Amino acid sequence: MTLPERVTIPTCIGCGSLRLFADCEPGCNEEKLELIHAEAYDELAGRLAEQRALLGAVAQAAQRLAAPSSGGSEAGYRAAQEIARAVLRAHPSGGAQETEPEPPDVRTAWWCPECGGIEDWQECLGICVWRPLEWVSRERYAELEEQLVGQRERVARAREMLATLAHVTPRPGHWDQSLALLAAQAGALLAPP
Ligand SMILES: [Zn+2]
Ligand SMILES: [Zn+2]
Q: Is 58 contained in some domain?
């Protein structure tokens, strides 16, 4: 049995006890398992998807800026401008939120590598009332968080560049200059760190 990364566990709405069968006879082996609510993980995943969308738009725009096929630099600039406007409309917060994600509650439970059971008993005032709740392993949450934080600065610069492209239209005669400037910015952003 491998350690679960995302798992639905019957969870008591009163005391928070977790019980996903644990059936070994005479008893389960227990390994410590740290869990995060899947909801918190999904929020983080949503932020990461926004970051990816912004960086993807920079890559697309860079193509148009670097190789304005027909119509010259004005057509190239305007095509890239459309890409920037579309992605900023679709992702107004742009994955570059000022607010940090709330640090998630970490729940410790016990996992049995023999049967895959997960449990952790708390003292319940009444009788446990179970409902299925989704959990994600803390390791998996941490991986996502690291990615998110690691590219935050780059995403903020991407957002600035896209905003400039979306809102600034060069004066006649300055298309080449503006295009070259933004193409250089996009190139720097996309270069591997
Ligand atoms: Zn077991
Ligand atoms: Zn309970």
A: yes
Burial class (CB in 10 A: 0-12, 13-18, 19+), 76: buried
Indicate whether 115 belongs to any domain.
Answer: yes
What are the pLDDT digits (tens) for 46-80? 989 999 999 999 999 998 888 766 678 888 899 99
Predicted TM-score of the model (pTM): 0.82
- How many domains, in total, are found in the chain? 1
Ligand 2 midpoint to CA 4 (Å)? 23
* 193 in a structural domain: no
In the reported structure, the alpha carbon of residue 13 is separated from the centroid of ligand 1 by a whole-number distance in angstroms of 24
The number of the ligand nearest the C-alpha atom of 129 reads 2
Residue 187 Cα, ligand 1 centroid: separation in angstroms?
54
Q: Is residue 168 part of a domain?
A: yes
3-state secondary structure of 126: coil
Range of the domain at 125: 6-185
Of 31, 14, 5, give the one whose Cα is nearest residue 109: 31
162 C-alpha to ligand 1 centroid (Å): 53
